[in-house]
Known about the structure:
Strands 1-2 form a two-stranded antiparallel ribbon. Strands 3-4 form a two-stranded antiparallel sheet. Strand 3 and strand 4 (265-266) form a beta hairpin. Helix content is 45%, strand content 3%. It is an all-alpha fold and 269 residues long. The structure holds 2-acetamido-2-deoxy-beta-D-glucopyranose (3 copies).
Amino acid sequence: xxxxxxxLLATAVAFSSSxxxxxxxxxxxxxxxxxxxxxxxxxxxNALANHGYLPRDGKNITxxxxxxxxxxxxxxxxxxxxxxxxxxxxTSTYAWxxxxxxxxxxxxxxEHDASLSRMDEALGSNWxxxxxxxTTLANSNPGVDYYNASSAGEVQRLRLEQxxxxxxxxxxxxxxxxxxxRESSLYLAVMGDPTTGEAPKEYVxxxxxxxxxxxEEGWKRSEVPINNDxxxxxxxxxLKTSQWPGPVEGQCAWxxxxxxxxxxxxxxx
Length: 269
Ligand SMILES: *[C@@H]1O[C@H](CO)[C@@H](O)[C@H](O)[C@H]1NC(C)=O
Ligand SMILES: *[C@@H]1O[C@H](CO)[C@@H](O)[C@H](O)[C@H]1NC(C)=O
Ligand SMILES: *[C@@H]1O[C@H](CO)[C@@H](O)[C@H](O)[C@H]1NC(C)=O
């Protein structure tokens, strides 16, 4: 009797210590993409796939799947990303209601020049992480261990300046400004505190460099729902500090509306 309950206790201890030894070994633990899995220019979506909130193969993503993943993974409310998700559907090569993370590499849809971590499409891979490009962000807000909305705006300013200098095909209109500013506000809100717009550099760097949620390092999903009010407050500061110089002369806001080679676009003329 004593023997068997001791055995049970020992088993329970062994079981719980094996759980403790492998924290996060659940269906949302990190797993790098394998053969046949596809990834995108967006670290936020890639991380959701690497943690199993999106399909790990990066395929067959519908609007409900994406809204659910963003909510469960980051506490992002649908209102913040619904438009981007709907626009992304136009990149799909195989369905009306689903896209893959590979589809959204399409330049001129959601993907844009002067990215924080990818090369411009005309200059190289527009979807793989690039440490040289990321240097601007990595060196920002010196002297403290966090990034914030004004450093994010400054990074946008510097990256655009670099892109305008190095790439004569750079597309820079209100549509890119809007997307880039939303993305900057999101890395701050998701990796940091959405009410202050401050995010630890360590977390943001892991997020961009590894497409990984820095759970082992202490990151936690925001308890505060990330909604439009909070995002707009962060964006306001980013927009101001990014000192956007206005569109490239003669360029109109555009959205590429199909994955073909043609430049089938819509926008005000
Ligand atoms: C899933 O996506 C792939 C393309 O990425 C497509 O070929 C396949 O038909 C899709 N499957 C379903 C069930 O929609
Ligand atoms: C961001 O951090 C820097 C460095 O501490 C600080 O000077 C700046 O005022 C901060 N910006 C905001 C919006 O808090
Ligand atoms: C843009 O740059 C490329 C490569 O440097 C060059 O071949 C091309 O002629 C340039 N186009 C314009 C319009 O200046």
